[in-house]
Give the backbone structure.
Amino acid sequence: MQNATLPTISAIQEEIIREFQTLEHDRERMLTYIMDLGDRLEPMDALFKNEHNTIRGCISKVWLTYTRKGDLLFFEGDSNTAITKGLISLLLRVLSGQKIEDIIHANLYFVGKIGMTQLLGFQRSNGFANMLKEMKLIAIAQKTKQKA
């Protein structure tokens, strides 16, 4: 059963797909929208912007931290560049507040549906994949702690 406070991962992805469809695959508008999403992201406390919370493999600085409440993970992230901050905000929107098991098995199909790989190019797409990988690794580590 899904938690009562947030829609499912799939429902959130469908919202994102609808939002991007209104941009009519206009690269400029899509990039502007991603940067706007980053602008709306709550700023991360400078205390958490440290080496321990840095995601490796991104061309920009990206920080990620989390808290666990029961079987739910809540992520917080930030970046030093507008586009990357927008990208992490998309991942936070989809995965934060979700069940650990759901995060581990999440198939983020919205990425392909909105044409993100073509939009971002290889380096940023690789960084996006590293952000997602880190979130899933955190979920796996937390699942392991559940069993202990």
User: Anything to note?
Assistant: The beta strands are 62-69, 72-79, 98-99. The longest strand covers residues 62-69.
